[in-house]
């Protein structure tokens, strides 16, 4: 059996090769009947997502936050002053169950990052509000996150970044409601 070369048809020999190129070359060797183009795209997205997740976790850890904590705090921050949302709105924005959100709000309240208030419009309703400490923490974590993500993007030209964002948006919209 011939050893896969790692060369990718359509790419010059000087083009950089990555692990996905090696995987595709091996599959091409073993199964030349398959169209491997989806693998060339989605394996890279999957691998990049894993690296990005680790980079984000490190950025949040610098501010002593877990990823889920940042998700909730940033949803409140994006709401604008007075940085309040109902638990239902937080569920919708963070894509978790209401039971999970109740637990998360409790834990964030125990850390002093959020407070619960009765809704002025509905005496049975609750609003979750970002505290000054929560605001300070999420703002610092956001700045750290953007620095990490900007560093990752340095391998792309400024001109390529909007193009990549548009292509990813096109792929992602099929899953949006």
UniProtKB/TrEMBL annotation:
What keywords are assigned to this protein?
A: DNA-binding, Transcription, Transcription regulation
Q: Which SUPFAM superfamilies match?
A: Winged helix' DNA-binding domain (SSF46785)
Q: Name one Pfam family in it.
A: MarR_2
Where do the HTH marR-type domain residues begin and end? 38-173
Please state what the protein is called.
MarR family transcriptional regulator TamR
Q: Which organism is it from?
A: Myceligenerans crystallogenes
> What ranges does the record give for the region Disordered, renumbered to this chain?
1-20
Recorded hits in PROSITE patterns, A to Z, give: HTH_MARR_1, HTH_MARR_2
